[in-house]
Amino acid sequence: MHWHLELQEHDISEATLAAWMNWRQAHPLHERAWQRAEAFAQRMSDIRSPSQRALAQATLRPTLSRRAVIKQLSVLLAAGAGAWTLKDTALVQDMTADYHSRIGEQRRIALADDTQVQLNTDSVINVVFERESRRIKLLRGEILITRDHSADGRLLSIDTADGRLEAALAQFSVRQRVGFTQVSVYQGTLLLSPSLQRREPVVLKAGEQVSFNDQGLMLRQTVALAAPAWTQGMLVAQGQRLADFLDDLSRYRRGHLACDPTIADVRVSGTFPLADTERILFAVADTLQLDVQQFTRYWVTLKPRMA
Q1: Residues 74 and 18 in one domain
Q2: Whole-model pTM?
Q3: Known Pfam families for this protein (predicted)?
Q4: Which residue, 55, 78, 96, sits at the end of a domain?
């Protein structure tokens, strides 16, 4: 997808074209991935063909409910995209979820009971408010939830891929990661119930951070009582490995971001405004005496600076 973005630019350089061909030829898996991406693009092109235009326009009408959109998307899949499975992709999550944020965006939402929700970069939630229950489903990304005395006091449930959290009055963040969920509590208490654990819920108190999967707790440690820095549009590192720092930073920008393995353990400290990730990269590189190698605008690597 990185190369598809590059090749859609109007002023493609000869160097970019050469790099693209070199990448395709570097490994059979690269070429196979490219062929699959081309097939995907063709299927999307089919949707824009005259025979599908009316259906596509109907599906994208903003007045349709999410249920109607999903129903008509299923028709699109059968008519124009064959075996292309969209159910779990980020695109369909964004189209059908109640709230989502773009890459690099932090978004604030006030729910009907005065619960405050802040979405970090590239995050998606569904919200179900009924007479007897209040539920949030975290589909992707990270959220900060604040329930103070202005909320109606009913129990709020947060479902992730790994289990359920319940809170009355509390402030806490929840991040869905690959294979586990991370929870940090800043005020109040939470009840945690991993999906496959049949014991009593785990009680989490302010100042605790927990990582858990559907089987149970993986890690329990302390955390500062202040809300995370991203809620103020900042990224904070305190002696963090460069590789881990770049992994965090990559959540706020498109494309590939990494470093040479020989400098992966170099330590990074500082407070950086997330509004300009390019500026962060060059500031870190200048401080650590590193080179920023921009293969293309979507493929950036930090390397040791040559003498």
Answers
A1: yes
A2: 0.71
A3: DUF4880, FecR
A4: 96
